[in-house]
């Protein structure tokens, strides 16, 4: 097999360069002379994460698709700490990304199963204030493409980046209490009534009817036909924005704020 470099990182003071090779080795090089100093052995699959410590020039973190996370002393070429991301009943979870905290006391990783792993010194009690299961209600919603080949949310016909801040739900789609909804960027200062998601019932592909978060409940909407008014408002607003961009009928522009009140974009 011809070796190929999959990732490269400089250490904190730029004296060393670490490369990850597709033969599962990490190589430490002198950045001035190009001399190979160490081969770091431990990974069993390709490595796509190399993260340097924010102030300790000796420390480098590596993680890969084999579920292994290593802390290395690259000056000595030795392992300092090792963690294997074993998930009960599902084998190991490939690690896709890792980042150190600015103070270097913690680092966080994300894996292929949607888990956030937090490592560090001290007590874990502050992290117990949030639920174990935290998803955005839009995480697994299907996307479509419009006539211009732009991506739209299938349910609301709106561009994903223009949609209002999502709601936090558990693995079954049940919304979390309002105190957790304020953790979502864009909802920090919302009134309580704007933190209560509206639930609707949708049919799945196998015909099962499930409850799902579909939008934000607002105080200026009539109770009858609550769901259609939200979705119709979103579609009208999207069409209005598209007309304005293409320079079409400009007379529809003044109706924007009125239609906008029917949408959940009231952060």
TrEMBL record:
InterPro entries: Bromo_WD_repeat, WD40/YVTN_repeat-like_dom_sf, WD40_repeat_CS, WD40_repeat_dom_sf, WD40_rpt. SMART domains: WD40. PROSITE patterns: WD_REPEATS_1 (PS00678), WD_REPEATS_2 (PS50082), WD_REPEATS_REGION (PS50294). Residues 249-261 have a biased composition (Polar residues). WD repeats lie at residues 1-39, 40-82. Pfam families: WD40 (PF00400). The lineage of its organism: Eukaryota, Metazoa, Chordata, Craniata, Vertebrata. SUPFAM superfamilies: WD40 repeat-like (SSF50978). Residues 239-267 are annotated as: Disordered. This is BRWD1 protein. The gene is Brwd1_0. It comes from Sinosuthora webbiana. GO terms for biological process: cytoskeleton organization; regulation of cell shape; regulation of transcription by RNA polymerase II. Keywords: Repeat, WD repeat. One of its GO terms (cellular component) is nucleus.
């Amino acid at each position: 097999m011809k070796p190929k470099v999959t990732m490269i990182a400089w250490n904190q003071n730029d004296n060393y360069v670490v490369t990850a090779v597709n033969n599962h080795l990490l190589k430490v090089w002198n950045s001035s002379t190009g001399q190979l100093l160490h081969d770091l052995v431990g990974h069993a699959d390709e490595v796509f994460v190399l993260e340097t410590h924010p102030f300790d020039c000796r420390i480098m973190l590596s993680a890969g698709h084999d579920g292994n996370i290593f802390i290395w002393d690259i000056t000595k070429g030795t392992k300092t700490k090792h963690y294997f991301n074993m998930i009960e009943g599902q084998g190991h979870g490939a690690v896709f990304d890792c980042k150190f905290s600015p103070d270097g006391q913690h680092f966080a990783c994300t894996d292929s199963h949607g888990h956030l792993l937090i490592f560090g010194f001290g007590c874990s009690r502050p992290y117990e204030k949030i639920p174990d299961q935290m998803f955005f209600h839009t995480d697994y919603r299907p996307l479509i493409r419009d006539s211009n080949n732009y991506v739209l949310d299938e349910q609301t016909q709106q561009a994903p980046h223009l949609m209002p801040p999502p709601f936090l739900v558990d693995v079954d789609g049940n919304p979390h209490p309002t105190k957790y909804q304020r953790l979502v960027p864009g909802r920090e200062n919302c009134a309580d009534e704007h933190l209560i998601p509206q639930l609707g019932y949708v049919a799945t592909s196998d015909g099962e009817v499930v409850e799902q978060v579909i939008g934000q409940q607002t105080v200026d909407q009539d109770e009858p036909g609550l769901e259609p008014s939200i979705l119709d408002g979103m579609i009208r607003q999207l069409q209005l924005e598209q007309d304005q961009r293409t320079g079409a009928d400009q007379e529809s522009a003044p109706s924007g704020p009125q239609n906008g009140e029917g949408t959940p974009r009231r952060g």
